[in-house]
Amino acid sequence: MIVEHLSFYGRDETEARRKVAQIYNHCEVLECVPHQVTMNGRLGTVNYEDVVDLISASS
Question: DSSP of the chain, one letter per residue?
């Protein structure tokens, strides 16, 4: 089965792939498109516009 358009967040691609492997045992990642997320504010919060940009970029 092919599952498309998953988003996993990590400090880097290696961490995101590790998270995928933990959830989907024996999976094979066919394509990976890293997105750099800008963290705004002192606490690293992401605002509404940042979320919309992420969703738009993955389409």
Answer: ----------SSHHHHHHHHHHHSTT-----------PPBTTTTB--HHHHHHHHHHH-
The CA distance from 51 to 26, in Å, is 30
Q: What is the rounded (10 degree) CA torsion for 40, 42, 44, 50? A: -20
Q: Which residues contact 39 (CB under 8 A, 6 or more apart)?
A: 45, 46
pTM: 0.55
Q: Taking 70 as the threshold, does the pLDDT of residue 44 lie above it? A: no
